[in-house]
Amino acid sequence: MQVIELDRLTKYYGKVRGIEDLSFTVEQGEIFGFIGPNGAGKTTTIRTLLGLVFPTSGSGKIFGQDCIQYGSAIRKRIGYLPSEVFYYDQMKVLDLLKYSASFYQKDCTKRIHELAEAMDLALHRKIEDLSYGNKKKVGIVQGLLHSPELLMLDEPTSGLDPLMQRRFFDIIAEENRKGTTVFFSSHILSEVQHLCTRVAVMRDGKVIKIEDIDTLRQDNYKRVSLKSATASSEHFRIPGVTNLSQDGRMVSFMYKGSANELVAAIGKSDIEDVVIEDPSLEEIFMHYYQAVQTP
Q1: Is 254 in contact with 214 (CB distance < 8 Å)?
Q2: Residue 79 class from Cβ within 10 Å (0-12 exposed, 13-18 middle, 19+ buried)?
Q3: Highest mean pLDDT among 32-41, 146-155, 272-281
Q4: Which residue ranges make up each domain of the chain?
């Protein structure tokens, strides 16, 4: 079942591009990563899907229903954590969360206390007394308190210390095991790499790649490093080699292509050491950006 469907979804703010011709789907039970630098269009996509801004053209569906026409009903089934959280400063945390829970036709009291304990959140403090990280914890509890079917997370870990980030990831993984679909927007690629099953890479308002995380890493470019007294970078100017560099006796590059051709190229030198490994998601990400930017 497709939980999210985008069909040529486009949003312009006047003449300024937000997103353009986005078409992809998110399946039920996925943790779907949505990655790209600031300004790539991630937040605009989420806000458009939530009906917070209207699309210029194209359409988006959640649970098979149009996001604008049925927005009110859809949002009751979604948990949303924005990248920036703002609250009434004079309210206590518990009062704010109870107010949020009042929008759902269920008793969320037990759930609020369980999540607050897991995130080490003091419920009786005023919002104005909280640090930015603790305000982000409030947003996490608020997004999860009604046990939503779909979680929309926009840069969710900004402001959280490493311990809280790990607890947050554990909570998200547990919610996913219960059947919750997760749409996870981030520019921190290590987070996406550890959590997500599939990822869309964004640049300048467009999706430039959609791939399974494992496939993206295993069936993509390999990182090759070798040490040799006789090797020259010129030996490795073969089809499929990019990011070629040499520093003294060390030659390194990214490679995608025939393993036989790579081995033949390596065999032309007296090799002291060679390492061939999967690149990190960060390196794959930068490769796609460099490839797109190259005239």
Answers
A1: no
A2: buried
A3: 146-155
A4: 2-213, 221-278
For residues 234 and 203, is the Cβ–Cβ distance under 8 A? no
β-pairing, 150-154 with 181-186? parallel
Class of domain 221-278: alpha beta
CA atoms within 13 A on the CB side of 180: 24
CA distance 140 to 163: 15
Residues in the chain: 295
Q: What is the pTM of this model?
A: 0.78
CATH 3.40.50.300 fits 2-213, yes or no: yes
pLDDT score of 294: 45
Alpha helices in the chain (DSSP H): 42-49, 71-75, 93-101, 109-118, 132-144, 162-177, 189-195, 213-218, 259-266, 281-293
Q: Over 50: is that where the pLDDT of 295 sits?
A: no
Supply the mean pLDDT for the chain: 89
